[in-house]
Amino acid sequence: MKALIRDRYGPPDVLEVRDIDRPAPKERELLVRVHAASINDWDWQMLQRPMLPLGFNTPRVRILGSDIAGRVAAVGSGVQHFTVGDEVYGDLSRFGSGGWGGFAEYVCVPEVAVIRKPPRMTFEQAAALPQAGQLAVQGLFAAGPLRSGQKILINGAGGGVGTIAIQLAKWQDVEVTGVDSAVKFEMMRAIGFDHVIDYRNENFARNGRRYDLILDTKTTRSPFAYTRSLSPGGTYATVGGDLSRLFQFVIFGWCIRQTTGKTVRLIMLKQNQDLPYLNERFEAGQLIPVIDGPYRLSEAREAFRHFGAGTHNGKVVITME
Ligand SMILES: NC(=O)c1ccc[n+]([C@@H]2O[C@H](COP(=O)([O-])OP(=O)(O)OC[C@H]3O[C@@H](n4cnc5c(N)ncnc54)[C@H](OP(=O)(O)O)[C@@H]3O)[C@@H](O)[C@H]2O)c1
């Protein structure tokens, strides 16, 4: 089978499509014929350096790719819920045989790592959903269900999380502002943002406006800077950004709540918990993933460069055919 392999850390040039042996599923695993996989920030980070700086120069994960969609090609003897031919998708980052492995024609995954794909959802759409979709759900509803009339701001709005979060928010009566670079504004307006802000020209944390909920995918400031932009009782939920900033949310979160009545939260992804909810929203016609591409596996280096440059709209998807 063909797979996107790397033997060392580095830029997208270290990625090579090679022929390797097709894996065989263990007792409780499925062999999935992967049709599409999407690039996440974790793939980008892991491409370049180890997650922990322990001095190892050879990557443990040689085939990246956590968010996959495909068809079950074989099942292990202990598999209970799937059969050959089922169309499935999920996030393998915590599962897989040793984890990851999605940028390949086949991957073995424990059956708990995937759920069934709705028939009308394409493989490309399904591959776009797992990490970004669930971070969107877990961030957007961090303070409970949205309420009519709320003002919401999404920072990093034109990427994977933001383009899903806006759609999940907009079927309720809320006003949503999106912050990203201006080249993405046309797409952002088309999927429902009421207002847009170019982060290169305006600091939303200093423009005097207040929001009931801020969902941030690119935290760059201290928690105190963001609480200024929250309405009384408001919530700021971050899913990612500058690591040293994210630690401050853990350290100062309790103290901010006690002194201001506002909440700041760091969301840790709960894998595959909210895929059934995303299926429901898709089937109700309230969610259509924004796909950049799809790229072919042979174009994976280009797809990674595009992702790394931040020029993508929504999710960068790679197909294996
Ligand atoms: N919490 C967890 O457990 C967990 C798990 C997985 C991933 N993550 C994190 O979750 C986030 C995933 O976000 P995503 O998939 O939406 O990423 P994405 O697709 O890369 O989108 C991020 C968007 O933010 C824009 N951006 C860059 N810098 C910005 C800034 N300073 N202010 C505002 N916008 C900015 C980017 O556009 P330009 O670059 O063109 O400006 C891009 O459109 C990542 O930070 C990732 O590390 C967290």
Label this structure with key terms:
6-stranded parallel beta sheet, 7-stranded mixed beta sheet, 321 residues, single chain, alpha/beta, binds NADP nicotinamide-adenine-dinucleotide phosphate, Quinone Oxidoreductase, Chain A, domain 1
State the low-pLDDT regions, or none.
none
Helix content: 25-40%
Report the portion of residues in β strands: 25-35%
CATH level-4 homologous superfamily of the largest domain: Medium-chain alcohol dehydrogenases, catalytic domain
Number of helices: 9
* Rg, Cα atoms, Å: 20 Å
* Mean pLDDT value: 94
Largest sheet: 7 strands, mixed
Count the E strands: 15
H/E element string? EEEHEEEEHHEHEHEEHEHEHEHE
Distance from N terminus to C terminus (CA atoms, Å) equals: 11 Å
CATH third-tier fold name of the largest domain:
Quinone Oxidoreductase, Chain A, domain 1
* Backbone structural class: alpha/beta
**Tertiary shape:** globular
Shape-level CATH architecture of the largest domain: Alpha-Beta Complex
Which molecules other than protein and nucleic acid are bound?
Answer: NADP nicotinamide-adenine-dinucleotide phosphate
CATH secondary-structure class of the largest domain: Alpha Beta
What is the domain total for the residues? 2
